[in-house]
Each structure stands twice: as C-alpha cells, then as structure tokens.
Design a protein that fits this description.
The chain is an alpha+beta fold and 153 residues long. It is built from five helices and four strands. It has helices at residues 3-41, 90-95, 97-107, 113-116, 119-134; strands at residues 57-59, 63-66, 75-84, 142-152.
Length: 153
C-alpha cells in the first residue's frame, strides 16, 4: 500500500472513533441529566415520587379548525380533556356543552401557527381556554386542560 492510502485510512478511522466517542459522551450526559431530573422530583423526606392528584376528567370531541396564518392554509386538530374542580361539575358542563364548544371554536381559529408552535404558546392557549370556560360559570369549574391530541398541518 502507498503512504497516501495508509494516511487516508488512519484519518478515516480517527474521525469515526472521535465521532463515536462524542456520541457516547452525549448519550451518557443525557442519561445522567434524566436521572438527576428524576431524583429532583423525588420527595426529600420519604424518598418517593409524589403523585399529583387528578380531578375528574370531562372529554371533549375533536376540534378541527383552520389557523389564522396569512398566505398559507394550515389547520389544527386538537382533542382535549377538561379536568374538573369537582366531580359534580360534570352535569353543569353537559348542560352547556354547545356553549363550551362554541367558546373553544372562537378561540382556536384566531391563532396562528407561530402562536401555538412552542410549549409556551400551547400553555398560553390552555390558560386562555380555561379562563374563557370558567367565565361561563359563577364558580371555577375547569381546573386544567389536557391536550390528548395536538396536530398542526
């Protein structure tokens, strides 16, 4: 073999080895950060993970709306569950389901893709829907919203 071929082969092996070492390092650091996050969730007194209490859920049918993007046709398909403050509030929601769906259908098409693409945008959308739905009642009925499907196309 010529010296150029040996040099090229050694260089390629060196680049592959450095790439593999970098990949393993990144994977190792990612796994250790996940372990650190899991440990931070653990309760410091008992050493057990605290489970958040979940209220009764009220599922809604899927919403499909066009987004308000100019010059581009995009739509949003979203399915959500409403977490109720009290189990007895389910009847109140059922009675006014048309008004609830209408309120949500007034909010969703007013959004642009940039408004809801980030995690902060989805959180702001969730907060806006919760505030709008709770304004329909004299007391707080909806405590949280869980998006079970959120697709933008």
């Amino acid at each position: 073999m010529s010296n150029k071929l040996i040099f090229l082969l050694v260089t390629v092996l060196l680049v592959v080895t450095i790439g593999l070492a970098g990949g393993f390092f990144m994977m190792w650091s990612k796994l250790s950060s996940l372990s650190t996050q899991a440990n931070s969730v653990a309760d410091s007194d008992t050493g057990q993970i605290q489970a958040a209490t979940l209220g009764p859920l009220f599922p809604l049918d899927t919403f499909i709306v066009n987004l308000a993007d100019q010059g581009r046709s995009r739509y949003l398909r979203v399915t959500m569950d409403l977490e109720l403050v009290e189990a007895t509030d389910a009847g109140m929601l059922t009675e006014r389901l048309s008004q609830i769906r209408d309120s949500i259908l007034m909010i969703l098409p007013s959004k642009r893709f940039d408004d809801i693409a980030s995690m902060e945008g989805k959180t702001a959308l969730r907060d806006e829907i919760i505030a709008t739905l709770n304004s329909l009642y004299t007391k707080e009925v909806v405590g949280n919203i869980f998006f079970t499907e959120f697709v933008v196309q």
